Amino acid sequence: MAYVSQKDKAKLAPQIKKVLSKYGMKGSISIRHHSTLVVTLQSGSIDFGEYTHGDGYIQVNTYHIESHYRGKAKSFLTELLAAMKGPDYFNNDDAMTDYFHRSHYTDINVGKWNKPYFLQVSKPKKTKAAKKTSKKVLDTSISESAEAVARMTLTEREKFVADMVSRYPTLADQLMSSIGYELMEKEGY
Fold first, then answer.
1. Which of 10, 29, 128, 138 has its CA 20 to 30 A from that of 154?
2. Rounded Cα gap, residues 20 and 38, in angstroms
3. With 90 as the cut, is the pLDDT of residue 182 above it?
4. Regarding beta strands 105-110 and 58-60, do their DSSP bridges make them parallel or antiparallel, or are they unpaired?
5. Which 8-state DSSP code applies to residue 31?
6. Are 126 and 135 in contact (CB under 8 A)?
7. DSSP string covering 32-101, please?
8. SS3 letters for 91-133?
């Protein structure tokens, strides 16, 4: 029968934190129902945008990481899963005879259902031209920017949204989530 204790978690935590740090990720480690070790990724440098349904939340299927993910996401999740299993992990499951015996189960969540994963983008090196643009953006307040969007015609707004989605898909996704949560909070949900 699967069982993972706080002592087991403390034993596995250093390796898990080492993998999180290696890939520039922030996450929490917890235990669910005394049988499952859970790592919830809160933010980091890996873009999981193409794997979500637009809500910034994924329950990673740990049995299919190799076939469902690629690149840096695949490498990270594979290493994280190995660290979560640890050296004492075993799996003697036999579904044919309805016999399940393993050291513990593992779950990886990217974000939470009520708090999406936040992609931390590294800042590019500034050039002289970028400084001029940055100063112009800094001189414009947030409320002035919001007002400029509000004053756009429907056609201008549709072009603005299409351009944002094609050039900055992660930002568009995060804005959509933030706006949705703000509206829900405003309506009292």
1. 138
2. 14
3. no
4. antiparallel
5. E
6. no
7. ETTTEEEEEEEEESS--GGGSSSSS-EEE-TTSHHHH--HHHHHHHHHHHHHHH-TT--B--BGGGTB--
8. ECCEHHHCECCECCEEEEEECECCECCEECCCCCCCCHHHHHH
> What's the one-letter identity of residue 61?
N
Residue that the structure tokens 């290696």 belong to:
22
Average model confidence (pLDDT) for the chain?
A: 82
* pLDDT, tens only, 6-51: 999 999 999 999 999 999 999 999 999 999 999 999 998 888 888 8
- Whole-prediction pTM: 0.60
Structural tokens at position 165: 């989605």
Amino acid 140: pLDDT: 55
**Are 56 and 111 spatial neighbours (Cβ–Cβ below 8 Å)?**
yes
Q: What is the CA radius of gyration of the chain?
A: 21
Q: Say if CB 62 and CB 107 are below 8 A apart.
A: yes
Q: Which residues pair with residue 29 across a beta bridge?
A: 39
The pLDDT tens digits of the residues spanning 99-130 come to 888 889 899 999 888 888 888 876 655 555 54
Nearest to 81 by CA among 26, 20, 5: 20
